[in-house]
Each structure stands twice: as C-alpha cells, then as structure tokens.
Amino acid sequence: MTASIDPALQLRPQPSAFTTLRRVILDRPATIFALIIVILFVLVAVLAPWIAPHDPLAQSILDVNKPPSAVHPVGTDQFGRDVLSRLIYGSRNSLIFGFVSPVLAAILGTSLGVIAGYFGGIADRIISRVIDLLLAFPELLLAILIAAVLGGGFWNVVAVLTVAFTPGFARVARASTLAVKQEPYIEAAVAVGLRTPMIILRHVVPNIAAPIVVLTTLWIASAIRLEASLSFLGIGTQPPNPSWGNIIRDGLNNLFGSPWPIIGAGTLITLVVLAFNLIGDAVRDALDPEASR
Amino acid sequence: MTRYIVVRLLDAIPTVLLVLTLVFVAMRILPGDPAVAALGDFATPEQREAFREKMGLNAPLWQQYLTFVVSSLTLDFGVSMMNGRDVLGLIAYNLPYTIELTIASVLLGVVIGVPFGVWAATNPNRAPDSAMRGFSLIGYAVPDFYLGALLLIVFSLNLGWFPINGGGEGFLDRMHHVFLPALTLAFIKAAFLGRLTRTALLEVMGRDYIRTARAKGAREPRVIYRHGLRNALLPLTTGLGLTTLTALSGSVAIELVFNRPGLGKLLISAIAERDYAVIQGGIVVFALFVVAINLAMDLVYVLVDPRIRVS
Questions:
Q1: What domains can be seen in chain B, in order of their start residue?
Q2: N or C, where is chain A less crowded by C-beta within 10 Å?
Q3: Does residue B86 sit in helix, strand or coil?
Q4: Where do the TM regions start and end (chain B) (predicted)?
C-alpha cells in the first residue's frame, strides 16, 4: 500500500470510476471482508454510547485485572475499567483521526502543490525544497518530532497528523499539475481569457483529483496507525480518554496484571488498518490501474 | 562520480540549515509559550521570566536563531532542566543503543525479507507467493509496538528466554537484549523488503538477458542471484534507505515497549517531563540523523548504479 502513485499516469478521463470501483471491490473476497470490517468499525464508533456495556471511565477497585468473563468480555484493566467499553469508545478516536487528518492534509497539500506546479518560480522553489526535506522524514518520526513541540491533546494530534501527511499530497499534486498544465485545454482556457483562479478550480483540480483521492484512501490506514502510535507514546490522545494506542500503553504498565487490554486493542488496530489497506489498494486499482502492481 | 559525490555532500549543507530553521520555527514561533510548556500552568510570572532569561528567549529573534544554529552545529544543547546533566552527554549515552537497534533490525529484516521475496518471485502465483502476500498484508497492518508487546509477553515474561528490560552490558548481553526488539522491527521491515524484492525481481526476470543467461545453460540459482537479483539492486537500495529510516522512527516506540535506553526513550521522557533542552537536542539529533541516512543512501547509489558512476 506504500506504492507510490505516478502522477503522469493519472490524466486519462475515468468515465466509470464508480463502476470500476464496485467491480474491483466485489471481485475480491478479501476486499468484501475488508468492507465488512470497515462498516462494523464505523457503526461501533458511531453507536458507542448505545452499545458499550459499561462506562469506559468508571473505575472499580473490586474488579481490577479480571480475565474475560460474561460481564466483562475482554476483562478489566488495572483500574477495574471495562476493557471492551474502552475499546468501543477508543474506536471513535481512530475513526475521527483516520478520516479528518488525511482529508485536511489533502486540502492543504493539494493547495500547496497546485500553487507550486501552476505558478512555478520562486514559490515553487521554496515549496518544493521544504516538501523534499519533509518527505525525507518517515511520517511517524515527523509526527513524533512535531508532537514533541506541540504536546498531546485532540487538536494538536489533528495538526500533527495533518502536517505529517501534507508533503506527500503536495508532491503528487505538484507533479500532476505540471503534467495537466501541458494539456491543450489549459492553453485553450488561457486563450479564451479565463481568469487564473477559474482555470485552477475548473480545469486543473478536477483533472488531478484521481491520484489525490487514491492517496487520501491509502492514508486513512496510516492515520489510524499513527494516532495509535502517538497515543501509545503518550503524545496523542490523553488519558483517561480511551484510544487504542493508550490502552496498549496502560496495558504495558500492567504486564503482570492482565494481557487482555494489549491483545484486544492490538488486534483491533491490526484488523482495521488491514481492512483500510485492502480498500485503499482496491480504490487505487480502480482509479489508477497503472500504479498498481 | 567524484563530482556527483561532491555535489551531494555540498547539497547536504543547505539541507541541514533548512532542517535547523524548521526546528527553530517550530519551537519558537508556533503558538504556545515555551516557558509555560516547560514549567507548567502553575509557575509564577517570575519563574517564567527567569526561565526565558536562562534559555535566551528574551534576545531578539535573529540572535536566538543564530545562537540556535551555532549551538546545534557544535552539538551544544545545554543542560537538562530535570537533572542538570549535560544534554550532549545524555544523547551520547543513549545514541549507541538506538543505532544498535536500528542496524540489528535492518540486518534481520534483510536476512528474512530478501530470501522470502526471492522465494515468492521464483514461484509466482503459487503457495510461496501467497504466503508472501499474506505476510506483507500483516506486516503493513500490525503496529510495531503491539507486536513488540506480544513478543515481550510470550518470550520474556512467560518463557523467560529474553530479558524484560534494559540495554545490557558487554557485547553478548547487549545482543541478547537487542534481539527481541530488533526482531519486532525486522518483521515489519521484512514484509516491506520481501514484497519489494519480489516485485523488483519479477520485473527483471522477464528481461532478455535472463533468457540469454538461461539459454547459455547457466544454472537457475546463478541466473536468479547473479543476473536477476543484481539488477534488482537499485530499487532494493532505495528500499533499504526507507527501511533504515522507518526502523529509526520505529525504535522510539520499541524502546518504550522493551524499556530500553535510547534516543527515542530519552525524547519521550523529556516530553513527559517538559525538559525543553533535552527535547530540543533530541529533535535536532534525530533530524540530523535522517539527513545523514538520506545522504548515505545517495552515496550508496553510486556503488550500485554504474550509470551514476560514469556520468
């Protein structure tokens, strides 16, 4: 899923993208499985208050470190909190960060990339240099370094993830814009006297949309994993609010108590990230057949 | 070739300056008062003022910037605010553990991943190939810190084969300590490298010179390793660079899981303790490492790609 997208290949019209997508998804059993996981995940996150059996923050000194039972299907943690309820509420974090930060990064990155690609010159030189530099950093390390400055908390994590993903979008958008700019229809639009913002919005952006959409879907999985990593490191979602990452962190501090929180949260992260990876691959294959292997 | 190397080395200078500038911008200009960040919300205005004075935050911005660049380049990061120890000393103590972990995990990842990829590529669409696909799907999905926690629970806690924490003393003991953490990261690297090897090798194996080699009567292992893999080295080199970088970033969480000393653990503790000087030093050293690894990879290309060597 880390396969890069060659922007030069994106420019053919895709008349039936939705049909192709449906076909690509339904053709593969693995993708159907992924789709079911994703739908369950979204439902659980949305319905958390109604389906969680217990209050995820309620502590009980009598129920510390209980193994799985009928009352607590995934057991309890060192504070006697119900792990299943914490996992259910934790899915909300993953859902929000998984979608919000790639979309924000897509908007920000595409804007920067289009500006650099369309106008060129000094703006392009500065933007490209900074992008190249930031791209030299793995997203996780970049996120850790920014979070080191900003600290944890909801909005800071949104900002951290957005900044970590923006350079990738900017690079793809810039390269695609450079290619689109060579097309005759842009020349025609300039010749008929269309104003530049109009050309960019009506003719450039729609024609670079496919790789941006592909990249956004591919990064949902990364965003979920990054949020979990940051929360695990203590610079993401702050306790006592549950996040799959900080549930594993709490679990590690309680290794001799109960392994169940770690196993529960870890399995969920793996499953959900796997599902989004499979769907991201399917979307890429549908919208961008030549980028896939 | 010399020209290429010189150009690459010179190019690293503006890159380093840009990195330092971005770190400076992030730490000084972003919203939030470092004095509040470091001392907490309950510090008195006098304490904050004393902190600003001590950290040189009252000087004009350009002067702060120059001081920052010069002290970063001379690796003078001041002293820790928690224990008064020299930040450079703290980094020098922790860095070898991180380097050890990064190198060990990359080596293990190559040793597991490359043969697996070759095996999959030489049996396309058969069982080994499916195994590779399954392995890479899991490897891309499982968080390293979760895998680490599982290995820790099984092999250290339950079976007692490996130590539960620390970095070890002396070579053998250190290798004993580094094995599980490195294996954790290597598993994920191997998924990536294996898939990369498979793709690169499959592409090469369809070329004419492979057919020629076979027609000459070369044995299959020779065809694969001498003619195939050798020509698949270039994408693998890129992959190796990426692997080293992600191993470095993965080491942060892994050091926490296995409670090992290391740069990542130092940085994370510093963030928790709001130890401003250590945070700044840690970020700079991490960032310089990334630049250095990228530079090293550019230089390795020279060895691998004869086209660069000639031009």
A1: 2-73 (no CATH), 93-310 (1.10.3720.10)
A2: C
A3: strand
A4: 12-30, 101-122, 134-158, 178-197, 232-258, 278-304
